[in-house]
Write a structure and sequence with these properties.
Largest sheet: 7 strands, mixed
Structural class: alpha/beta
Order of helices and strands: EEEHEHHHEEHEEHHEHEHHHH
Distance between the termini: 25 Å
Strand order of the largest sheet: 1-2-3-4-5-7-10
Length: about 270
């Protein structure tokens, strides 16, 4: 039985080892307010530090993932009284860093729009599944802003500098098929199969050789952010842990006995 763990603007449920975090403001295409952003940050921290989930699914309620920041007119009219730099440093930045630094895999499940910060929440995840309705954009320049929430890192990481600049400077709308061809998403599926495809992958990760899966994320993080030497060192450290694990012994036994392994994540 799924349990609702958080406030209504952020719906958090957990079934077994799989936690789903859903942005819940469908009347605004799940645009995310500063209060909701703080709740999402805190839930990411909780998932990293304090609970037994093994896989996180990040999504939006209804027909859209997230339309970026909720630009409430009262905030815009306040002018200099809203310190956006402090807000980003205290909310988006530590949340994005935590998503990348935690060893638990995060799967983005995307319908409809994922634009602005919403797009970058998606790119911070480890796997991205999109329905055919999905549309992505670094939409910031359309309203006279530059990127935040990691777009300046994630876009050139995936696309190279020149294509990233083009799509960001022109606030281009990227359809699901184009996003897949550019390598921005793992898979595009029909809308009516998206939930099951993501659930199947989440269960595969949660019930698989979980220690090895966590260490794979850690190895990739070290290799991509710190270079070959540190990547090699991280692989060596983690392989030593894997080699002593019950899952490794079970994996070898199952291979030799030609049967399906029964991994415990230990």
């Amino acid at each position: 039985m799924a349990e609702n763990l958080t406030a209504e603007k952020l719906l958090v449920t957990q079934e077994g080892y799989i936690k789903t975090i859903a942005i819940n403001q469908p009347n605004k295409k799940n645009a995310i307010s500063s209060e909701m952003s703080a709740q999402l940050r805190d839930e990411i921290f909780r998932s990293r530090d304090d609970d037994n989930c093994r896989v996180i699914i990040l999504t939006g309620i209804g027909d859209n993932f997230c339309a970026g920041a909720d630009l409430d007119p009262s905030t815009l009219q306040s002018g200099d009284s809203f310190d956006v730099t402090t807000f980003l440093k205290e909310t988006y930045n530590p949340m994005i860093t935590a998503m990348r630094d935690m060893d638990k895999p995060i799967i983005a499940k995307v319908r409809g729009v994922a634009v602005g910060a919403g797009f970058n929440f998606v790119l911070a995840c480890d796997m991205i599944y999109a329905s055919e309705t999905a549309r992505f954009s670094q939409i910031f320049t359309q309203i006279g802003l530059s990127s935040d929430a990691g777009g300046a890192y994630f876009m050139p990481e995936r696309l190279g500098y020149h294509k990233a600049f083009e799509l960001m400077a022109t606030h281009a709308i990227i359809g699901a098929a184009e996003a897949q061809s550019l390598g921005l998403v793992n898979q595009v599926v029909a809308d009516n199969t998206l939930d099951q495809v993501v659930q199947d992958m989440a269960e595969r990760l949660a019930n698989g050789p979980y220690l090895a899966i966590k260490h794979t994320k850690a190895n990739l993080r070290a290799g991509t952010t710190q270079g070959l030497e540190e990547g090699l060192a991280e692989e060596a450290r983690n392989q030593g842990k894997n080699f002593k694990s019950k899952d490794f012994m079970e994996g070898v036994s199952a291979f030799l006995q030609k049967r399906t392994p029964d991994f415990k994540g230990e």
